[in-house]
Amino acid sequence: MTTSITTNSIALNKNSAKPVIEIKNLYKSFSSNAVLIDFNFSLYPGENVVVLGKSGSGKSVLIKCIIGLMKPDKGSISVLDNEVPQLTSSQLDKLRVKVGFLFQSNALYDSMTVRENLEFPLRRHWFKTSQSEEDTLIIEALSNVGLTNTVDMMPAELSGGMRKRIALARTLILKPEIILYDEPTTGLDPITGKEISNLMNDIKKKYKTSSIIISHDINCVKIVADRIVMLIDGKCYAEGTLDELKNSIDSKVKQFFE
Amino acid sequence: MQSNALYAFFDEIGDITRFTGKFFIELFKSRFELKEFLRQCFYIGNKSFGLVAITAFIMGLVITIQSRPTLVEFGAEAWLPKMVSVSLIREIAPVITALICAGKIGSGIGAELGSMKVTEQIDAMDVSGTNPYKYLVVTRVMATTLMIPVLVTLADAISLYGAYLGANIRGIVSWDLFWSQVFDTIVYSDLFPSILKTYFFGFIIGIIGCYKGFNSKKGTEGVGQSANSAVVISSLLVFVIDLLAVQITDVLNLN
Ligand SMILES: Nc1ncnc2c1ncn2[C@@H]1O[C@H](COP(=O)(O)OP(=O)(O)OP(=O)(O)O)[C@@H](O)[C@H]1O
Ligand SMILES: [Mg+2]
Description:
The complex is a heterodimer of chains A (258) and B (255). By secondary structure, chain A is α/β, with parallel strands linked by helices.
């Protein structure tokens, strides 16, 4: 059933490095709705992996399990050598500093200004940041997304694309090692979408991050993907580079690239 | 069908109890979010004081005007300040204030947390290393618990002033006489239980609002529903607590 396509370059990568995220036999269902069924996946250091799948196939559920917002029914999720489902809440807090998460809906705090939104991840009590350090971090994060002038605005005053970029800045402010992007370009015009995709590549180069990117946007996939994983029927149905999957003969895979 | 509804009812009571238990666990954990707590206190006081003041004033006035004919019939007109002040302090000011706050603050909390829930802002807090329960629920419940007694105390004073004006529409009662009668009548055993119960009113309004918000269903309709049911349930519980409070003070012979 599973068509596994592996390129030489990835195979090399796989042999030489230990995965930063390793998922084994993951099961997750909501009452009678089985979403993930025996899902297996690894993310290697320094790669951008795109997860493709139909709407409702469980992509958001997958990355929420990785960050510990949802508990899987069965299976193991290891992130930077931490077994996520078994972590206590304070261990999870420490791990989450190293893992950035961009929400599909942005999830900016409506009642706070852009500055307060960006300060929020810095509030953890073991972080002893001074006001000037905080300001530097905020300005750096905003200039990464090219929006330094919005610092005192409310999220409601921003356009959809600007909100996406502020959410991205908030994700990046702690300089995570791993970033999980949930549909970073959905709902944006092609030009802004392309800007964000390029930004994601820049971030990868600048901070040496590894990321999982959920996306339907084929233009974004073209720019960012080192490898693509297809989530079909709750499983990792196929994986490979864009070209390999495009030329696949499997009908379920093919329909994504028509 | 009916047993289903009954099941859902007890299920919800169980959920609310668990939610309340979690409040007490989180309350005593370190890092109290003082800034957010103060912001909520200010917000609650600022948002509902005007409404509470107007209602309390009108209630004081109206109750006095309505009570006069009956007392006149018994030739007991001089008792007007006594009778009115007891019913205002013991019952009317606390319950009316609580109901207004259930409508204004309870629905506000339900809608705010509900929309934060459905737009994943609560998850975002969790991911950002801030316990959303501590940051959002503990601060709001503490704020309603402490602010509603303050509002009730103000409502007591304002409603008594309303009563003073009401007493002066038809008869003439001097300022001094009115207040000396009021303070002769009202003793600690009137004031103490009636203020004490308002802490419970405040607690219930906060906890039900937060519970409904945190369990909001997806979509704008879900948010509206949480706000709405927060008001309905907390108003109902205000009356239940009021009933219990009367029974308890009665048994303890504080009346
Ligand atoms: N909290 C939840 N409770 C119950 N069911 C859920 C919950 N979250 C997700 N689901 C179900 O899990 C399935 C997968 O949802 P998910 O959000 O992961 O889809 P998705 O692949 O991200 O889709 P999209 O591309 O539209 O975002 C859906 O059938 C959804 O109904
Ligand atoms: Mg999704």
